[in-house]
Amino acid sequence: MITIVLGTRPEIIKMSPVIRACMREDLPFSILHTGQHHSYAMDRLFFEDLALPEADINLDVGSGTHGEQTGKILTGVEKVLSETRPGVTLVQGDTNTVMAAALAATKLHLRVGHVEAGLRSFDRRMPEEINRVVTDHIADYLFAPTRIAEENLLHEGISQASIVLTGNTIVDAVFENLAIAQERSDVMTRLDLHKSGYILVTAHRAENVDDPSRLAGIFEGVRGVGEEFGLPVIYPVHPRTDKMIQTFGLSTAGITCIPPIGFLDFLVLEAGAHLILTDSGGVQEEACILHVPCVTMRDSTERPETICVGANLLAGTDAAQITATAKEMSLRSRDWENPFGDSRAGARIVEFLTARGCG
Ligand code: UD1
Ligand code: UDP
Predict the structure, then answer these.
(1) Is the CATH number 3.40.50.2000 carried by domain 186-330?
(2) Measured from the CB, is residue 201 less than 6 Å from ligand 2?
(3) Residue 13 CA: which ligand is closest?
(4) 163-175 per-position pLDDT tens digit
């Protein structure tokens, strides 16, 4: 039995190809949802959009400080796994769900597989970086999406024998859903948008949105980009950011803020954007895969492949720098290579686990 642990929006999306591969191969699996994300638009909507089976168990841990949230996940996952003792516990990415679930499983002497292993921003102030490093060093199977990720693991002394180069499951998720999204989504009509006629923005990283001057820089910067290109700026706002906008009393004038939207609508918005401005990990990858230029409003990225192929530039959060970087990025041709693999990452992970007798 494979236990697939997930808890947040990006984990639901990036685990979906693994879940589909298990279903195709008729492998027994269970879904353990920690409930880290819990609002309809951050959780259930993705199960519906991606036609995923219900989670077998939901721990409903909800939001809290790092200690509270991590502690609740650790206790809850330990209880479930000590009763079910799966052949392998799979986690994906770099959230508190990932680190806590991996720790619970490994202390029960259960095998752990880390999907999207080996990413590094080399910035330990990011909670995600701590979660990645800890998870990679306790997991048994490290599913590295790229050669750079594999190299990062080897540099940290992790054995080659536990690393499998798979590609990133986001490529599978994009291509399993893009055509469906284009057929079903009416988001362009709903928002009165035209292909290449708008700028798409997302921002939710704690180090950006919990800091009033960085968040103000982002808003001023994206407003400036909209004015520079004479295009509307569309921003589906993450709940963390929504809370901080209220807390700091920041103006969002000149930006079309909408609630977070489902994966199908978001894919269509990404594919049709003139330019994407983001601080998200997954959105940097998707922009690259969809050949839409991206500006990342951060000082570092754990997705250097996007920079290397010419699909992405780092701008930080200074308003003038964001506008200047957007101008530079929009001049580039969009013929870069996709560095994230071939849409078979989910299948490769499941084949590997089957061969190890984890199914
Ligand atoms: C978490 C991850 C981050 C990931 C992001 C994906 C950690 C440390 N952070 O950040 O790496 O990029 O998910 O989106 O694990 N909230 C809601 N409804 C929800 C979820 C959150 O209202 O369904 C609000 C709450 O006010 C909560 C805040 O958002 O306090 C932050 O949520 P949390 O899960 O702690 O972190 P994220 O910022 O979502
Ligand atoms: N996404 C979405 N709706 C939105 C914003 C993002 O479906 O309104 C998807 C996006 O396609 C990507 C994922 O959410 O696959 C990224 O999640 P997020 O930015 O929250 O987290 P990160 O990738 O930074 O961990």
Answers:
(1) yes
(2) no
(3) 2
(4) 999 999 999 999 9
